[in-house]
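Action item from last meeting closed. Structure (366 res):
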């Protein structure tokens, strides 16, 4: 089964191409961004200019930080209702787009701060346009939103088909202004999503051509993007790979590969993509016996061995040392075991295996 209700525009003129599809979504947009990125890359100004040209009204809410918190969702909901908006445009990395999804649900279903993860209360949503300015999360084509609950010091996601964006507008030049560390971390995030399409118990051969093409593109282009940030062709390849990653996890879900990184972000501030990267090699070793045929087919397509892939990864990732104590490992493991991603693993992974991963990758070897 392959299902994606999002209309995708991709390329230099994607925004212009989407013009006829914007007005039917509503009268007034709440544009949801972070403080600087959307403006800096040109996406915000170009979007506002198009809305003005179409005669559509808009209000700008720029209070979303990295790893958006529930309080920001609730203040976005208030602004949406005060301004009498009826659709949303999330511009940015995953953080503002995920926040736009949650604001849509909070406004449509009158959710309070304690209800934002409660999918049983999601009956409707306002339409969402997603304009990515990073090449990582693929959230422009997913039903997921990942938020942080400050009170519980916990990062977790929810999934609801109601928040599949109506339009995904992917303009590779918006990623030209990404700093080197964000380029790296987001590229690794996209790579995780693609690999998880193979690991997941919901793996779907319809996705394999996207996965193989996306992984190849990242392996070839991510190292170049780090040295040549202004190389548009390379940026386009990475944005396409990230889009394929989003289409992949929309079907296959994410696995332990993702949930093991969430506590590292909420407790230690490790960027999301890097948190995935730190455990990537050991995750692949853990899952390998269960998906050997599929992974070998991917490596054959790449023309590289597993060892070559690990060498590529080691060269790319910075050495990261996180001084986890046994108590913290215990705490992170409890959070991981309760995450919904665990249902997507290719076999049942127990708490001891998770602890071993934390110890091995984070404390002893680095
Ligand atoms: P992000 O947190 O949205 O942004 C990271 C940083 O990059 C911010 O400082 C941002 O600035 C800046 N930035 C963004 N675009 C820029 C540009 N074009 N030029 C210059 N700076 C730019 O990063 P992300 O990695 O894309 O998103 C990560 C979040 O998405 C995490 O919370 C993660 O858990 C989530 N995620 C969601 C899904 C999903 O399916 N929904 C999947 C994977 C991950 P501003 O703050 O000024 O915007
Ligand atoms: Fe991710």
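Sequence:
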């Amino acid at each position: 089964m392959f299902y994606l209700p999002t209309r995708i525009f991709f390329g230099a003129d994607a925004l212009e191409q989407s013009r006829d599809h914007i007005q039917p979504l509503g009268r007034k947009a709440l544009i949801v961004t972070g403080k600087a990125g959307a403006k800096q890359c040109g996406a915000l100004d170009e979007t506002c200019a198009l809305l003005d040209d179409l005669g559509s009204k808009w209000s700008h809410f720029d209070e979303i930080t990295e790893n958006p918190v529930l309080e920001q969702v609730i203040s976005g909901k208030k602004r949406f209702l005060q301004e009498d908006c009826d659709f949303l445009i999330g511009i940015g990395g995953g953080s503002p787009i995920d926040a736009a999804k949650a604001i849509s649900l909070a406004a449509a279903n009158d959710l309070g701060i304690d209800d934002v993860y409660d999918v049983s209360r999601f009956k409707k949503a306002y339409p969402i346009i997603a304009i990515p300015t990073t090449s990582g999360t693929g959230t422009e084509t997913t039903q997921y939103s990942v938020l942080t609950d400050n009170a519980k010091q916990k990062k977790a996601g929810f999934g609801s088909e109601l928040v599949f964006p109506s339009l995904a507008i992917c303009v590779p030049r918006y990623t030209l202004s990404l700093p080197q560390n964000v380029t790296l971390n987001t590229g690794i995030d996209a790579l995780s999503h693609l690999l998880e399409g193979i690991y997941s118990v919901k793996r779907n051969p319809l996705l394999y051509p996207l996965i193989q093409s996306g992984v190849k593109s990242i392996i070839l282009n991510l190292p170049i993007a780090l040295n040549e940030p202004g190389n548009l062709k390379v940026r386009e390849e990475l944005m396409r790979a990230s889009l394929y990653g989003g289409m992949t996890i929309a079907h296959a879900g994410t696995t332990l590969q993702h949930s093991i990184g969430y506590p590292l972000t909420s407790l230690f501030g490790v960027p999301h993509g890097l948190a995935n990267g730190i455990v990537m090699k050991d995750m692949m070793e853990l899952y390998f016996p269960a998906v050997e045929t599929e992974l070998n087919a991917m490596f054959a397509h790449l023309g590289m061995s597993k060892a070559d892939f690990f060498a590529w990864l080691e060269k790319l990732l910075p050495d990261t040392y996180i001084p986890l104590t046994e108590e913290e490992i215990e705490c992170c493991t409890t959070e991981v075991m309760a995450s919904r991603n665990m249902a997507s693993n290719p076999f049942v992974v127990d708490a001891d295996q998770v602890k071993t991963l934390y110890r091995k990758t984070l404390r002893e070897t680095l």
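Note appended to the action item: DSSP finds 15 helices and eight strands in the chain.
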